[in-house]
Design goal:
425 residues; mainly alpha; 76% helix; globular; disordered N terminus
Length: 425
Amino acid sequence: MSGIPQSSAQRAGLPESGPEQMRALADREPGTIEGVLLVMTCWCTVLASGVLSPVLPQIAHRFAYLPQIELLVGLVATMPALMVSVSAIPVGWLADRLGHRNVLFGALLLYGVAGIVPFWLESIGAIVATRAFVGLGEAGAMITGTALVGLRFRGARRGRWLAAQIATANILGIFALQLGGVLGLFDWHTPFLAYTFALLLLVPSLYFVKAPAVTAKPAAHADLLPTPSRSAARATAILCGMEVVSMFAMFVIIIQMAFLFQQRGAMNSAEIGIGISCGAVGLATGATSSGALARIDWLYRTMIGFLLAGAGFLGVAFASGYWATGVTLALAGLGVGLTVPALLNALVAVVPHQALGRAIGFWTAATFIPQFLNPPIFLILRQLVGTQSRAIGFIGIFMLALGLFLAVSGKLVRLHTAATVSASA
């Protein structure tokens, strides 16, 4: 009889789970449940604003006696997006230091708790403060959820899950507005209960979402994380620049088209909503199609997306009626929807794993900043060209020019973004 103690696994005749086995388990190809949960992390963005939009007039009426109430209500709506824009890059850096899985769980908890608290509040100042924490949680959930898709999945499968994040978020946006409207029938506080979604998502994520081997355990000297290569940094800058253009075009659909539909025969807000929904359907269709076409090179998908978006916006500028405007807007949405997943997939492929959180942080900032840049830039453009339709037509010309540039100078673009991007990206 040996004096060396045996583990329960040895006594049972089972293989022990040493460091090598643990790393293999962490790096094992993830299943569908994990993919679905990571897709759902991006729904936090839609819920952050969508469920409250229908009750903003009720909140304004409740606090009508306060000075600057319009500004305060606007902050209730936009504070999460503002915080995401400001915090995305440092949150990404934090995820690289602490591990994406750890930050994801903390972000979901923060988002859920901060989102629900206003249900019991009667001070609009306190509500605005909690909305700032909602934005921090939203940034963490978005960045780490996307990074984990990039780290856990490979090739075309990764592309499909990234596209699913974008496509399902666009579709959910429609239902979030309806949910907020229904909950608002009870009281303006009630829609805040929808943020329990994050806490419900956290429970299965604790079990099913795994950390990849390369980031499963934060390094002992986390302050000595490797600096991304110059080529990866250059690729990140180029891809995020194209993302700014794509998102600016998306906010043209969401923000600016309401005024044009009103000029072209929309009689009420319902008809304006239907018209804008044509663009939303195009966005969702484009994102879904980009996922299905994940085996096609990202540069070709981006080029086609810019060309379609440009043609669609030009069609909007020259269309003469309500329904013709809706059809051409759907084409513009289709093009924008194609580009975003392709660019994101390329970014995930080109950036080293240890710096992916920071890169996704820059990407997230590039996604949200155009929301604030669109109104003033479009106003200046409209003043320069004279009308709303001409300004949208100018956007179309710019998108077409960018698509043609990618067609002509694709080798040059690939030279600066292909350090480690594979064709499957």
